[in-house]
Amino acid sequence: xxxxxxxxxxxxxxxxxxxxxxxxxxxxxxxxxxxxxxxxxxxxxxxxxxxxxxxxxxxxxxxxxxxxxxxxxxxxxxx
Length: 79
Fold this sequence. Notes:
By secondary structure, the protein is an alpha+beta fold. It has helices at about 30-55, 60-79; strands at about 1-10, 15-20. The chain has one domain (about 1-79).
């Protein structure tokens, strides 16, 4: 579960608090948590740029890369 809280911080700023809850401790949970610990700063940086510039993020290249990674993992698992 991801909770985002937005609070005004003066005239021209907003404080964002992110809580990512519900983690398990066994199986693939530690890897998932490690992934998101690395990913959230990038995601939040992109969100900040979106609000600062008014321009949406183009996710086309990222989605293509993600599909490629999934295909590679699927091929590994078939071996």
